[in-house]
Design brief:
It is a single chain. By secondary structure, the chain is α/β, with parallel strands linked by helices. It folds into two domains: 166 residues, Amidase signature (AS) enzymes; 65 residues. The chain is built from nine helices and five strands. The protein has a five-stranded mixed beta sheet with strand order 2-1-3-5-4, covered by helices on one side. The two termini are 25 Å apart.
Length: 252
């Protein structure tokens, strides 16, 4: 959405808060620009012990370690945290995502299916495989799942996690023409984001390195509900100490 965390703060100042045309925003707090400049020295960053750190490519693991070292140098406290079963949260999120995406596109899938790319059309049709009961069960579990997450991160300002277990793939690697590995590549770039999307938590994704082949690596700064500003504050601090967000990827 932007070239820097500071730019994201400017976007937030425009779009955050209650919207009379959107009842789901009722009670949303107004944007606090001053909080986006909060120094990291009084913050606590949580590092998940599993799921988000499982089976990482070595370049991604190195970028995460380097980022943690940077945050420690900026005065933040880094602690390990045990999150609730993220595989279960991800599975529920997949149901909601698949069904709602298919529902949104249903009129065009019926009338203009040929205008969709084969990969996108196939993914949208997956939503037809879930029942209304499964969808409603996934929605009803969101509240308890969020409550369990907040209980697990008591005292923690932001969770840090890789955006993906691998560096960014190429278009060819994620297209149907990419062969058997295409589905795995798509799964890798969505797996770590799906639980957080399902829980409705704010996330700032920041460039945090490049692989040996020159492809970008990103990290997620996952905030608490309605506390986008704290994630942005950490992102701003990180970008004041690094230059990853100004680097241009080198494509193979």
């Amino acid at each position: 959405m932007a070239l820097s965390a500071e730019d994201c703060a400017l976007i937030g100042s425009v779009i955050a808060g209650p919207d009379p045309l959107d009842p789901t925003t009722s009670g949303a707090p107004a944007w606090n620009m001053a909080a986006t400049e909060r120094p990291p020295r009084d913050m606590t960053i949580g590092v998940p012990r599993n799921f988000y750190v499982d089976d990482l490519e070595s370049d991604v693991a190195t970028s995460l370690d380097d980022a943690l070292a940077t945050f420690r140098s900026l005065g933040a406290q880094v602690v390990e945290v045990d999150l609730p079963d993220q595989t279960a949260v991800s599975a529920a999120g997949l149901i909601v995502l698949a069904v709602e995406a298919t529902c949104l596109h249903a009129p065009w899938l019926r009338e203009r299916a040929s205008e969709y790319g084969a990969q996108v059309r196939n993914r949208l049709q997956n939503g037809l495989a879930y029942s209304a009961v499964e969808y409603l069960e996934a929605l009803r579990w969101r509240g308890p799942a969020l409550a369990a997450h907040l209980s697990a991160i008591s005292g923690i300002d932001v969770i840090i996690a890789p955006a993906s277990s691998a560096a960014a793939p190429t278009l060819e690697e994620t297209d149907l023409g990419g062969g058997a590995g295409a589905e795995a590549a798509i799964h890798a770039i969505t797996r770590f984001m799906r639980p957080i999307n399902y829980l409705g938590l704010p996330v700032l994704e920041i460039p945090a390195g490049q692989s040996r082949s020159g492809m970008p690596i990103g990290l997620q700064l996952i905030g608490r509900p309605f506390d986008d500003e704290t994630a942005i504050a950490l992102g701003r601090a990180f970008q004041s100490a690094t230059s990853y967000h100004r680097r241009i990827p080198v494509f193979p």
